[in-house]
Amino acid sequence: MTITPDMSVKPEVTGFFDPATNTISYVVKDPGSNACAIVDSVMDIDYAAGRITYDHANEIIAHVREKGLKVEWLIETHVHADHLSAAPYIQKQLGGKIGIGRNITIVQDTFGKIFNEGTEFQRDGSQFDRLFDDGDTYQVGGMRCIAMHTPGHTPACMTHIMGDAAFVGDTLFMPDGGSARADFPGGDAGQLYDSIQRVLALPDSMRLFMCHDYGPNGRDIRWETTVGEEKAHNIHIAGKSREEFIALRTARDRTLAMPKLIIPSLQVNMRGGDLPPPDADGKRFLKVPINGL
Q1: In this structure, is residue 216 part of a structural domain?
Q2: Which residues pair with 36 in a beta bridge?
Q3: Distance between CA atoms of 25 and 226, rounded to whole angstroms?
Q4: CB 3.0–4.6 Å: which of 30, 163, 189, 215 could bond 249 by disulfide?
Q5: How far apart are CA 205 and CA 128, in angstroms?
Q6: 286 lies in a domain?
């Protein structure tokens, strides 16, 4: 499907960096109103202590209230494996609808089995308010937004285009960071290459906002680039064929350890950001599948 963004609409984008997970969350304000969307929020976890807190989410909430904004959407670009979503917590404070790609159902089925979730765990995406298909549109105030399916890192990855800004999730990193891994269940390096090409087919001046940055070679953390910069300088893409990318991505993925928060992140994020249900005593637990990943 051909995506045609309105480059004349220039939303105000505010990034919030979480150093514990190297995640960037965003508040995206419609330039013509006080409406906004929040993209890829973070819930804090001290995994060793089993402690959940909301310092990062509270910073976003404070910003929204200070600016007098109205949250209409809480967007998840994909089911994150390296941080826990704070979308339900923010929704309770500020409202808005939680949206993710329709292929969340594939992720739920895959990891529902890995975590031995019973029949009470719904694998139909019903934990979310909206499941996006490729090319679906939605409104943030008067700003028309477009969901573009960009699988490869996970089956449910979507790039969300809001005016002249696109939020790419883990499909791309900054040019000196390359691309995200494609070796999780449901990932595919060839699909990732094709998805990246869809992103790079957008106008060269399109602003691209990353979900993560790790400051390669000691540089400062950055999270905004453009399509033109990625096409010219991305170390995994520029000047490389599809076959070369697949070989590079596959070889690199073999060297990577699992993200340290993958086990709690998947259990929470496939539930739309909610914790697993409590037991008869009101206690909540996260499972560790032995040799399951």
Answers
A1: yes
A2: 29, 71
A3: 18
A4: 189
A5: 32
A6: no
